Amino acid sequence: MGFIGETVDSIKAIKIRQLLTQAITLGMIITSALIIWKALICVTGSESPVVVVLSESMEPGFQRGDILFLRMTKEPIRAGEIVVFSVDGRKIPIVHRAIKVHERGDTKEVDVLTKGDNNKIDDIVLYAEGQLWLHRHHIMGRAVGFLPYVGWVTIIMTEKPIIKYILIGALGLLVITSKD
Amino acid sequence: MHSFGYRANALLTFAVTILAFICAIASFSDNFSNQTPSAQIQILNINWFQKQPHGNDEVSLTLNVTADLQSLFTWNTKQVFAFVAAEYETSKNALNQVSLWDAIIPEKEHAKFWIQISNKYRFIDQGHNLRGKDFNLTLHWHVMPKTGKMFADKIVMSGYRLPNAYR
């Protein structure tokens, strides 16, 4: 009961100026996170510079919950590269390996077929109706590095959104009731 | 300033920073490994070579692949993904790469191998340009680390040729 009494007291004792300062500090933290994210998008050239591995289709190399760092350069796509692509009509990007590449001589356009390392068949079934190849505009980036286990935080927050709300609520409460 | 909350926060931040630093160093140390992989590929047999109903050439081969990829493994290596691709040029396409076979090598002991297989993935052209075609067989490898930067390289073996007529 003492903690709740203290919290209520501290909420009552807040003055307007202090409240505004804390709101601005919170706003600064959020916007600097956004700035870092946008800067990463610029530096890596990819729309999503970091992705979380969601399926087991690339095991044992990439497990569910690992995060991948992506990079997108002007260099041509070659077989063996691990590419992240999104199919028209599907929201979630897929991380698989390119196993076939056909590059046109004149236009430099490229047809790519992908397959997950752990899958028995290639990705034709995942592409849109009637689509046989991926093209450059489907591909959002190449995986260049990876960190294990860190992505579990995102997976837990996506699959059990209540934890996300609890976390944000607790953080908000902490900011409001802290004295500095 | 000395409450449990502040101390736990400081400890956690420090632990995460140190962990990130260790991962970066582990990945960086991979740059110093001395890598001398070797490989040989032999085509034992052209099983069949047809033009399919959809108009594209397809060929089925039996390959003999010998490789020693043991020097690619460092202490920060989780697995090595190796694959053999046929690479050739046609009048329409500047480059065609078709993966014929791949394997995941989880440990250094398995990285020195000799294997005889027919192609795992279908060798299909975009068109019917494969008769008498010269092509390269390339052994590619992708080193997937326990943490950090992935790197890849290949050995190109040239001098292979498909027959001039279908069989």
UniProtKB/TrEMBL annotation, chain A:
InterPro entries: LexA/Signal_pep-like_sf, Peptidase_S24_S26A/B/C, Peptidase_S26B. Its main location: membrane. It catalyses: Cleavage of hydrophobic, N-terminal signal or leader sequences from secreted and periplasmic proteins. It is an enzyme of class 3 (hydrolase). It holds the Pfam family Peptidase_S24. CDD domains: Peptidase_S24_S26. The chain crosses the membrane at residues 19-40. Keywords: Hydrolase, Membrane, Protease, Transmembrane, Transmembrane helix. Belongs to the peptidase S26B family. This is signal peptidase I.
TrEMBL record, chain B:
It is a single-pass type II membrane protein. InterPro entries: SPC3. Keywords: Endoplasmic reticulum, Membrane, Signal-anchor, Transmembrane, Transmembrane helix. The keyword DNA repair does not apply. Its main location: endoplasmic reticulum. Essential component of the signal peptidase complex (SPC) which catalyzes the cleavage of N-terminal signal sequences from nascent proteins as they are translocated into the lumen of the endoplasmic reticulum. Essential for the SPC catalytic activity, possibly by stabilizing and positioning the active center of the complex close to the lumenal surface. Belongs to the SPCS3 family. This is Signal peptidase complex subunit 3. It comes from Camelina sativa. The lineage of its organism: Eukaryota, Viridiplantae, Streptophyta, Embryophyta, Tracheophyta.
